[in-house]
Structures are given as C-alpha cells and as structure tokens.
Task: inverse folding
C-alpha cells in the first residue's frame, strides 16, 4: 500500500488472533483526509478487532498499523484522534456534563467547550443527569460528544448511530458530513445500510476476518453484467431496438429483455425509442441492486476456511 501525504490510516497485512481463533486475516486499509470509510459485515466479521487495532487498544498479531504517521497508541494518546467505543467504560454515577468536562481537561481544554459539545449532540438538558440514567441512544450521543473533544483530525466510530432515535441519527450523520468537509478523516462501522449509503466515500466489506469487497457506492452497486426487463405493448421490433441501443435484445410472450448494464443514459434511450414508436412500457425491472444485496452476495460467496 503506497503512502501519501493525505493518508491518516495505513493498515497492511493486519492479523488479529485470539488464541487459535483468527479474527482478522490479512486486512489492508487506507483512510485519507476528508473521506469517510465505512466497514460493513456481520457480527464476528472482524470489524471491531480491526478498529481496535487502529485505535491502539489491541496489538496486532502481525502486520503494520500506522495512524497519523506513527504507531496507533501514540496517535490516539496525542489527542489528534477521536474515538467512540461501543463499551466506553463511563462511570455510571458521573453526570453527563462532568464526563465531558473531564475529557476536555485530559485534552488540555482545547477545542469546543463542554457546553458547545453538549449542545452539538442534543445533550444540554441532560448535563446533570447521571450516566446510569441515560437511554441507550443518549449514552451513544454522549460517547460521540467525548470523541469530539479537542480538535481531532481522525474519528474512529464503532456503531455511532446504534440505538439512536431518528433525530439523533440525523444529527450524527450531519456532524460527520461536516467533519469530512473540514478535512477530517472518518473510519466507522455500522449495520445500518441507509447510514452507510448516505455517508460513505468508500465501503469495505468484511467476512470472517478478510476483506471480500470494497469500493465506492457507485462501484459496488454496478453489477458486472445486467439486463433490463420490461413489458411492452405492442411488442417492439427487437432487431430495430437492438440496433438503436447497440446491444442484444430478446423477447418472449411476456417480457422484452435488453442485455446490458443499467445506466441512466441507456434507460433514457430505451424509453425514448419506445415513446417514438408508440410502445407503452410497464413493469420495468432495471436490475438495480441495494447495498444490502451486495453485502449478502459477497458474504455468501465467501466461505470460512
């Protein structure tokens, strides 16, 4: 993996073992400034172990992890990395405002004030509430607020929207988009495909400790082969339509089938030709797939050794 000035996270050949269990097997990963990279995969895929290695909370069994140009533990302790954990270990009896204030003091009281962080995450009215009395979503928003203490250049988030209501989820999504625009790099895990689709510049799909697919949303949602099926009344002249589209066209008693990847341009040309030739089109199946479809397909095709 080549290094560059924009790289915040560089992982090469990462292996994480728990005794005889290989949780992560040879993962390569790159996160640049001003981009959001989302790790997807089922529970046990190796996402959290990968994230913990980048956070410096878990030592790799082998491979290299560099964060902000140095080792992961040094980077995290520098205050330049904001970390949100699923198990954050907050003292149950501590008050919300006290927790944020404590973390600010640990980071030299730089960056947004405690009041600003609480307001940002919709926690101002809960500043005197104890951690034990927070709902799951409120607790998660507090963990995000803590990750924003100081001026982090890199955010490492593990399921930041899990258990958060719709309003809180929207706030976290907006926050991450704003941070990306400010040049902050983000690496996060999620099980929420809508969140991944809205946020990700790149997606990395893991299964049984290995990367089984990665790319932009557009790349992952473009099938290698495809077809467009539709009902047409009256039936079109398939030879003429094929010549117009420059691709193979066939028809049976029910459907006309265009053998080509779906693109907006191709679909527009198809519908335009049908309109010009007085053909009504219905029941279009353009072969579009969802991110969930892609993850399911890639993980089903990959078997645990």
Result:
């Amino acid at each position: 993996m080549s290094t560059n000035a924009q790289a915040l996270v560089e992982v090469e050949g990462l292996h994480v073992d728990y005794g005889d269990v290989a949780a992560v097997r040879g993962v390569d990963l790159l996160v640049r400034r001003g981009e959001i990279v989302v790790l997807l995969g089922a529970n046990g895929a190796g996402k959290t172990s990968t994230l913990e290695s980048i956070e410096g909370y878990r030592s790799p069994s082998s491979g290299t992890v560099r964060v902000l140009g140095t080792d992961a533990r040094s980077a995290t302790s520098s205050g330049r990395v904001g970390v949100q954990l699923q198990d954050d270990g907050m003292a149950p009896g501590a008050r919300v405002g006290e927790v944020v204030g404590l973390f600010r003091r640990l980071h030299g009281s730089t960056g947004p004030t405690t009041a600003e962080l609480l307001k940002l995450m919709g926690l101002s009215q809960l500043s005197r509430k104890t951690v034990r009395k927070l709902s799951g979503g409120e607790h998660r928003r507090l963990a995000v607020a803590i990750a924003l203490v100081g001026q982090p250049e890199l955010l490492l988030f593990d399921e930041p929207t899990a258990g958060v209501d719709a309003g809180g989820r929207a706030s976290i999504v907006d926050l991450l988009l704003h941070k990306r625009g400010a040049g902050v790099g983000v690496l996060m895990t999620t099980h929420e495909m809508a969140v991944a689709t809205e946020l990700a510049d790149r997606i990395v799909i893991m299964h049984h400790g290995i990367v089984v697919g990665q790319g932009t949303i557009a790349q992952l949602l473009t099938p290698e082969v495809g077809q467009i099926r539709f009902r047409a009344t009256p039936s079109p002249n398939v030879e003429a339509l094929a010549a117009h589209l420059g691709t193979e066209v066939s028809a049976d008693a029910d459907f006309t089938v265009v053998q080509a990847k779906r693109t907006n341009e191709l679909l527009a040309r198809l519908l335009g030709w049908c309109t010009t030739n007085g053909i009504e089109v219905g029941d279009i199946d353009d072969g579009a797939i969802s991110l969930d479809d892609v993850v399911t397909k890639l993980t089903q095709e990959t078997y645990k050794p």
